[in-house]
Amino acid sequence: MKLFYDTLLSHRSIRKYKKRPVPDRILNKILSAGTRASSSGNMQPYSIIVTTDEKLKEELLPAHFNQSMVTEAPVLLTFCADFHRMRMWLEQNDAPENFDNFMSFMIGSIDATLASQNVALAAEAEGLGICFMGTTLASNKEISRILKLPKHVVPVVGFSLGYPDEMPELRDRLNLEAIVHKDIYQDYSREEITKIYKEKEEEGMKRYKSNPDLKEMIQKTGVNNLAQVYTKVKYTKESHIKYSEDVFSCLEKQGFLN
Ligand SMILES: Cc1cc2nc3c(=O)[nH]c(=O)nc-3n(C[C@H](O)[C@H](O)[C@H](O)COP(=O)(O)O)c2cc1C
Question: pTM for the whole thing?
Answer without folding.
Answer: 0.96
